[in-house]
Specification:
The complex is a heterodimer of chains A (150) and B (292). Chain A has five helices and eleven strands; from the N terminus they run αββαβββαβαβββββα. Chain A is α+β, with helices and mostly antiparallel strands. The mean pLDDT of chain A is 93. In chain B, a hairpin with a 2-residue loop joins β12 and β13 (262-263). Chain B has helices at residues 3-10, 33-41, 70-73, 86-91, 108-116, 133-142, 184-187, 191-210, 230-239, 276-279, and strands at 23-26, 46-49, 56-61, 77-79, 98-101, 122-127, 148-152, 165-171, 211-221, 242-245, 253-254, 258-259, 262-263, 272-274, 284-291. The model of chain B has no long low-confidence stretch (mean pLDDT 97). Chain B contains ten helices and 15 strands. Classes of the chains: A alpha+beta (150), B alpha/beta (292). The A-B interface holds A 29, 31, 33-34, 37-38, 41-43, 45-51, 63-65, 86-87, 90, 117, 120, 122, 138-139, 141-142, 144-145, 147-150 and B 67-68, 70, 73-75, 80-81, 84, 105-106, 108-109, 121-122, 124-125, 132-138, 140-142, 144-153, 160-161, 163, 180. The complex binds S-adenosylmethionine. S-adenosylmethionine binds next to α5, β6 and α8 of chain B.
């Protein structure tokens, strides 16, 4: 599932299938050393390495590590947005075309694109004629849970 | 006057209310300090370096909530109380080491350990309470951690795994302190530290067992009760082959060596005790032990 997700953005192979590890409904990018350590332990971890994403219903919710890796791929389609649109986007809003300052790799309606503020990825959406429909943004961190005490 | 206030008086401290300045830690795994500093300054945020905490800043002024900013969401910073930034600094984990965080959620110090390790080496993090796992996992993700393996289990039982560690952080479960919680004096009773003691002793003995010879253990709490602090360390240095060493901190008072007429081992004074109105931080206690 995670591979189909990645394929929607780029055909560049930037994660080796061997390095990605599925843990229940989640995927991680695991350094060899950590993988070896985990294999010898009697219990399943709840988190290991860098978090790539999780399955939520029939969708993949990408992790920040995956978004940042996608953003580094030269072939990924991207839209760059204004400061104001960036803030609205992380508040779950769509991006109107007028707020797009630049695109990369010629996105067409129906394509999935990363939404960027300069070189920072804020999430992704579906490129449409009049806007980019918000499909995931990093404001999700604030919406997931109420913070708990240290 | 509450029973706790009376106890503090006996220990030579008059508990006065303290209003904490909000503070953050810059997460250098994701952003450099000068970069974050100038970026926030451009938005009207005034930060002041915390002189005793490596990547720590007090937030003097901010026109918006830093916890709801793009900088926060991108993991460039995390709110972390000034004293709470110090246990990891005292532990001083290095890239390539194998480190254990025995009481991890919500993972603020876990991510700080990875920051010190520059995401290189292995950090094993353990949290017993599964309701606290989402918070731990979100922090590890947001703060760009990639060298941590986390488990939902009782850290006291970890000895069965026969792993050994270069360094261990035991940020022990404790009863907190009056600065951290409104009406703390009215809400807590002495029964709590009696209950916590069993866990604290179990965890510290497990930690010492899992430490490599010459390895370092940092024991910390945000409690002001000697039963959760100096008395635990006194018990550990008498029972195990460990010695208490300097923390390298200049803030805080030496650990108490006389507690309600009980005389403790001299080396306990090498610990640091944070009486809130003296340090302008929350109540805190930090000890560093080295295994023979
Ligand atoms: C003071 S909090 C830790 C805060 C954390 N170190 C941080 O900086 O974000 C103590 C944690 O220990 C957990 N805990 C309590 N008993 C435990 C045990 N036996 N094994 C592992 N974790 C335990 C608690 O659920 C709690 O999350």
């Amino acid at each position: 599932m995670i591979w189909t997700f990645i394929d929607r953005f780029t055909d560049e192979e930037f994660i080796r299938e061997d390095d990605a590890y599925q843990l229940g409904d989640e995927w991680y990018l695991v350094p060899q050393q950590l993988f070896k350590l985990g294999k010898d332990l009697p219990r399943q971890p709840v988190f290991v390495g860098a978090f790539l994403g999780r399955k939520r219903n029939d969708y993949v919710v990408p992790g920040v590590a995956l978004l940042d890796l996608l953003a580094r791929s030269r072939k990924t389609k991207k839209v760059f947005v204004t400061d104001k649109a960036a803030w609205l986007f992380v508040c779950k809003k769509n991006v109107i075309t007028a707020s797009i300052t630049k695109t990369e790799n010629d996105p067409q309606p129906g394509d999935w694109v990363l939404v960027m503020l300069n070189d920072e990825c804020l999430g992704f959406g579906e490129f449409q004629k009049d806007d980019v429909k918000n499909m995931f943004d990093i404001g999700d961190f604030l919406r997931r849970e109420r913070p708990i005490r240290a | 006057m509450s029973v706790f206030e009376k106890r503090y008086h006996e220990l030579g401290y008059k508990p006065v209310p303290v209003v904490l300045k909000p503070s953050i830690r810059v997460n250098t795994l994701r952003c450099s300090e000068p970069e974050l500093f100038s970026r926030l300054a451009a938005k009207g945020v005034v930060l002041e370096k915390i002189p005793f905490a490596k990547n720590g800043y007090w937030v003097e002024k901010t026109p918006f909530s830093l916890g709801a900013s793009i900088e926060y969401l991108r993991g460039y910073l995390t709110p972390q109380e000034a004293a709470a930034q110090l246990p990891v600094q005292v532990l001083d984990p290095k890239p390539g080491e194998r480190v254990l965080d025995m009481a991890a959620a919500p993972g603020v110090k876990t991510s700080q350990i990875c920051q010190w390790m520059q995401n290189k080496g292995e950090l094993v993090a353990v949290e017993k309470n599964n309701r606290r796992l989402p918070g731990l996992k979100n922090n590890l993700e947001r703060l760009g951690v990639s060298n941590c393996i986390a488990f939902n289990t009782d850290a006291g039982k970890l000895v069965e795994w026969t792993l050994t560690f270069d360094k261990i952080l035991l940020d022990a479960p404790c009863m907190g302190n009056y600065v951290k919680e409104k009406d703390w004096f009215g809400k807590h009773s002495q029964k709590e530290f009696v209950r916590n003691n069993a866990t604290q002793k179990e965890l510290i003995s497990a930690a010492i067992t899992m430490l490599k010879p010459g390895g370092a253990l940092v024991y910390s709490t945000c409690s002001l009760e000697p039963e959760e602090d100096e008395l635990i360390i006194d018990w550990a240095v008498r029972k195990f082959k460990v010695r208490c060493v300097q923390t390298g901190l200049t803030i805080g008072n030496p650990g108490l060596t006389t507690v309600f007429d009980k005389r403790l081992s001299n080396e306990v004074q090498l610990c640091r005790r944070f009486w809130p109105s003296k340090t302008q931080t929350e109540g805190f206690f930090i000890a560093k032990l080295v295994k023979a």
